[in-house]
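Subgroup meeting minutes
Present: P.N., E.W., G.H.
Scribe: E.W.

1. P.N. recapped why we're keeping a running log of single-chain structure predictions: easier to compare across weeks, and new members can see raw inputs and outputs side by side.
2. G.H. added today's entry (523 aa).
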Amino acid sequence: MKKLIIFMTGLALLTAGCSGSNDSNNESASNPSGSSASTEEFSYPMPGSPELTFMNETLGGTPERLPIDDEYEKRTGIKIKNLGGAPMTDQKFSLMLASGELPDIFLNTWLQYPGGPEKAVEQGYILKLNDLIDQYAPNLKRTLQENPEIDKMIKTDDGTYYAFPFIRSEAGRVYGGPIIRKDWLDELNLKIPETMDEWHTVLTAFKEKKNAGAPVTFRTMFLGERTGGFAGAFGVMGNFYVNNGKVVYGYMEPDYKEYLRTMAQWYKEGLIDKDFASIDAPTVDKKMTSGDSGATIGWQFYIEKYNAAVQETDPKADFVAAPYPAAAKGQLPEFGQLDNAYAGTSSAAISATTKNVEAAMRWLDYAYSEEGRMLNTFGLEGVTYNMKDGKPVYTDLVVNNPEGLGSDQVMMKYAHGTNFPMIQQDNNLPAKYKQTAEALDVWRKTNHEKHLLPPVTPTAEEADEMSSIMNDINALVKEAELKIILGTEPVDNYDRYVQQMKDMGIERALEIQQAAYERYLKR
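Output recorded in log:
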């Protein structure tokens, strides 16, 4: 909350300071400084070896330079200095805006910007890209013309393009869910759980017969917001979603209270990690690989990581995906984990202060070319793959790595498989363990698709109002969840929290989201 207050205060001051410069910044979108539109055919590498600065959305210092970075520089002719990262809601991001020392390219979740992406353009931080796409981004332009649904997602209601998007492939939209020790189940003569009752039986057995100190462990982000988690069995999920054309807020739904009642009971029985409210990802990993926990909720690559770590000393260890739990046997849970093809993450906006707009556009546009697509998907020909009968085939560096690295670990160095401004392609990357490859089909079996709220864009005024309402409500629901699950408050107190949400303006927030949703459908 302190970070958000600092951010909002800083932006309020900056808005006043930038109000007189909007016209000049918008003009730079049509006549960018340091470059001019040219009718000549462009080809890579770009002459002059321009240099640009880049900041991503992952908090941390300057990342290690990888082979993919060198190859991008070689092919595009553009040098990139990576400044490290700062998520939109982090204090580092707001301080950077206040300083005026902006990177040439911001990779972030611009849908989360206070006031929305249009506000970021209006305040003079990032450029409106419409004219620039026509001038300098033929690959992105062609991609949008060929994919009208993507085009619909990545612009605002008034047609403003504000960033180069990361678009997930259909297969890439699901990437997380429950993970469980199948070897423990086999030992205990139990099947993979499919319902809440079966999960209760399994976790109780893990505690009593495997001496698991934390039968199931997970971080708070998996309670019911990033994924349906166990809440999906109750027909609810945290955050906003759609029920029969109406936008609802899951925390307000009566069945969310029943979900919390079950979680509080499990916690009281010692089935949920007593430390879940404060643990980080490395701690979850340690508990899963040490035998202290037998189940978690996490991402697909966790399965590969856990099997690789534990099977070195325990060859029988077997981490597999479990389906999202349903209310009853044979039913599908309403929620699991499913992203929109465009969720707003890893979207690259161009700073309004950059000295070489064309270079920034050309560097980003390369990913949407056929050559860029192949590089981002399969890496370097002759290194990570070779062409055979017109198809890429991975080399032993990937499939039988001499250092024992998993194929995904290798490809992270030589390609951009995810979280980069591009249209993601399915790379059919071989997994070291079949359990990893099988996970996504297990987790896809939900009704999540029909509830998914698309990437709507409230107007700048609506977004400001939404931020004012939701900042406090988001903090309130997290407080309520933890207090009830940890047993410091009875579950019936949740009714009081629901009333507080109403008093804080949740019904107005729902009106805004509904209006934005209806406008989105008309794009």
